[in-house]
Amino acid sequence: MNRFTAVCGISVLLGVVAAAAEEASNQPRLREIPLDQIWTFRMPGTKSVRDLEPKVELKELSVEAMVKSSIVHRIYHSLTRGKVAAPAFVIEGTGADALKNAESVFLGADPPEKLAANTDLTLVFYTVLGREVRINSIERDGDRITIKYHFNMRQANGMWADFALIPLGKLKPGMVDVDVVEQPIDGAEPSGLEDRVSSSFSFQVTE
């Protein structure tokens, strides 16, 4: 093999590698947020949001005293009074800070429409009073986040409400779309109860 042929071969190889790298970089990077990393009131397979606030013995308390002593129960109480869920929303902070910021929104404050890129963010998904809801998965695909859930239709109890704090970390500047998608189980038809679950929305991350 002469030198010219070798150089041509190397150039072709480098071109193939570069093309493959470009194609890979253009592919959406799907990443799942494990359920055991999110905080909920009582969804299976998740962390208990009650662990984010001081322990209080609630068994002997009246409903009024329980609500007064616990952020989680103030949020839950607000959800049991709702008839139709608004869109999900994003707040600043993680853990206990996110819980406090979520409470402000649940109790009447407007959720922020713009959030800073250098700040840890938390996505809040919730359900108002109705059938039990369980999150199946949470996926990030570039600037799109998809929450997939199902109703536990075997549960006759209509006294269920819940919320989830989903850590997103720090996001790049730009618009982010959040899709909330029902996944009926066992081949069933859609429940028709979408108004009981916080809906899809978009938010902006700024520099």
Please give the structural blueprint.
Elements: H1 3-26, E1 30-32, E2 39-40, E3 47-48, H2 63-69, H3 71-80, E4 89-92, H4 95-106, E5 114-116, E6 121-130, E7 133-141, E8 144-151, E9 160-169, E10 174-182, E11 201-206
Parallel strand pairs: 2-3, 5-11, 8-10
Antiparallel strand pairs: 1-7, 2-9, 4-6, 6-9, 7-8, 10-11
Helix pairs in contact: 2-3, 3-4
- Cα-to-Cα separation, first versus last residue: 54 Å
Spatial shape: globular
Strand content of the residues, in percent?
25-35%
Query: What strand order characterises the main sheet?
Result: 1-7-8-10-11-5
Question: Helical content, roughly?
Answer: 25-40%
Largest sheet: 6 strands, mixed
Query: Which structural class best describes the helix and strand composition?
Result: alpha/beta
Oligomer: single chain
Count of alpha/pi helices: 4
**SSE order:** HEEEHHEHEEEEEEE
Number of domains: 1
Radius of gyration from the CA trace?
22 Å
Query: How many strands appear in the DSSP assignment?
Result: 11
**Kindly state the mean pLDDT as a whole number?**
85
Low-confidence stretches: 4-14, 16-27
